[in-house]
Amino acid sequence: MTHFNRTTILQNNSFHGKVPSEIDRLFHLRVLFLSNNSFQGTVPTNLTHCSELNELNVIDNKLEGKIPEELGSLSKLRALGLANNIFTGRIPASLGNLSSLTLLLIGDNNLEGNQPDSWNDPFGHRESCKSNIP
């Protein structure tokens, strides 16, 4: 049955611990909301097995470490919410490959550096991407 799950909304609970790595078994998952919980650890890189994913929201948790480069391979991703966690390091350049991305919430972390150069596209195909990068 998990193979047919397209939407998983678990926001506004008291879940804690790591995001289960078994999430990658939800091959047809399109929407994953885990916001406003107490998840810890890192974002599982095997989320890339959920190739249909177009909305990922992990805002308001205790996730840490670097934002995985692998998220840049989720070509159908339109909305990515990573704000208000404990992410460190640079914004992965691979996120610049997400041509369908129209909403990126990434503030209130411990990120450094600049946004990917591809977000400064002179032809404006990224014009509709809204971000809260400081």
Task: Give a short overview.
By secondary structure, the protein is mainly beta.
User: Structural class from helices and strands?
Assistant: mainly beta
- Write down how many β-strands occur, each being a DSSP E stretch of 2 or more residues: 11
Distance between the termini: 42 Å
C-alpha Rg, in Å? 14 Å
Strand content: 25-35%
Strand order of the largest sheet: 1-3-5-7-9-11
If helices are DSSP runs of H or I spanning 4 or more residues, what is the number of helices? Answer: 0
List low-pLDDT spans. 122-130
Oligomer: single chain
Q: Give the overall pLDDT as a whole number.
A: 87
Set out the fold topology.
Blueprint: E1 7-9, E2 16-18, E3 31-33, E4 38-41, E5 55-57, E6 62-66, E7 79-81, E8 86-90, E9 103-105, E10 110-112, E11 130-131
Parallel strand pairs: 1-3, 2-4, 3-5, 4-6, 5-7, 6-8, 7-9, 8-10, 9-11
Question: How would you describe this protein?
Answer:
The protein has 134 residues and is mostly beta strands. It has no helices and eleven strands. The chain has strands at residues 7-9, 16-18, 31-33, 38-41, 55-57, 62-66, 79-81, 86-90, 103-105, 110-112, 130-131. The strands form two sheets. The chain has a six-stranded parallel beta sheet, with no helix packed on it. The chain is globular and about 35 Å long.
